Amino acid sequence: MSTQHIFVDYEGTLCESPVCGGVFSDLLFDDAFTNLKPNNKVKKYLSEQSNAQIYVLGVVDTGREVKQKERWLKKYYPMIPEENYIFVSSEHQKVDVIDAFVERFGWDKSKVLLIDDKEKHLVPVRKAGYRGVNANDL
Q: Whole-structure pTM over 0.70, yes or no?
């Protein structure tokens, strides 16, 4: 059985989305992501994937945000190795990141999955030949 490669979005997928309003000031003062609750459906699904490499594929806009998200992931998803955290600018397409991994490591596209809460990320992934699942459908 070959390994499945699962890329999982952060906000709205691994955890609830932060409430808009004070988010910018929260990013400045280290607590925008501290109290977010994990998405238990996604957490359960990932815990059942014994033959999978799991990667966090999140979007960030500040270095401070990266540190907050890393702390949160270590607390709620300790089974995901830190070297599998991938944070990209909102200017990058998630499908391009996945393409780079598939090309670099020669993975079978049918064994690659993106779990995300936004169809704008899932549609291009599916068009590229990968599997894409909306986190709300797990």
A: yes
